[in-house]
Amino acid sequence: MDASEGLPAAPHTIDEFVKGYEEGRTLRGFRCRQCGLVTATWGLACSRCGKPGLEDVTLSPRGTVVAFTILHVPGDEFLNDAPYAYVVVELDGGGRITGWMPSVRSESDLRYGERVRFHPSYKPGVQFVKESVPAPSE
Ligand SMILES: [Zn+2]
To answer: In Å, how far are 34, 46, 93 from 50, measured between CA atoms?
Structure first.
């Protein structure tokens, strides 16, 4: 018996979702075909209306900080970067995503509503920088 039988299929796997930002390409999300909810949270069904049938969508790399905290005692992967800000970003066009900002080292360096953009990095996680910081030349 196949336990996965009858489960809705997701347009992309969690693996692909993580690779999307780790390889510095895009932030991937879902849009609900039923109610139009855009979300960055991986799932098989809509978190608002509960319907399956989510479609792949590329999320905006820009957004607004809606919550943050300064971490002084980070996990091993970020040991050399502390302190830094752990942020929740409301992306333009929908979707909330958690990330981090190594350039923010104290509460006074960041404010709610700060405009930020996704900054692809070799570091783990989704890194953001303030929109006022010039983009690196590529
Ligand atoms: Zn929905």
So the answer is: 9, 5, 21
